[in-house]
Amino acid sequence: MISHKHKFIFIHIPGTAGTSIEHALEPYQEGSLSVDAGGEWHPTLEDRSTIFRDYKSETHPCNFANVKHLRACDWKAILGNRYNDYWKFTIVRQPIEKAKSMIRFLQVHNVGDKSIKGSGKWFYDQKFYVTDTDGSVIVDDIYKFEDLAGAWKSICKKLNIKHNELGHWNDRSKVFNQEIKFNDGVLEELKTELKADFELFNYELDKG
What is the pTM of this model? Predict the structure, then answer.
């Protein structure tokens, strides 16, 4: 999600309350919210010429069909030197809980192999969204899902917009309320795979 007028970019990492943030920022966004995409920020073809301006779509680093989940490095490629003129922020989540959220997504939407192995690393690896090709973090502020209310207050203050209570969208637990548990082997494998996320976002590895 981007606003050229308000100079912000929200990096929407799947499974971190991003849809709720997008709905709350709807009045300030660039482009329309698409009903076909479940009300999420998903610009129409007409909007894209405004959002991406002079950027050539044929050389775009990411599939346009998934623009709501563009990475920070994608936006940097799109904007070039203008990237630094924008305030970039995102929400991250405890890596194991994030993985569980992705399993719920697969179950609710009946997508492919409903296992952590079948979901694809991009689906739950959060570092992937906030770093440049050299591994350096290129977003300005990273908030935590575990303090979403506090994060939203800080975001409103930063953007100088009225603070209203953040709505709760895409609550998949209402549809798929089965508790998700990983056996010790899978849990240790996940901790190994997501060690970079634990370290980068300061989550305690032994509490996963």
Answer: 0.78
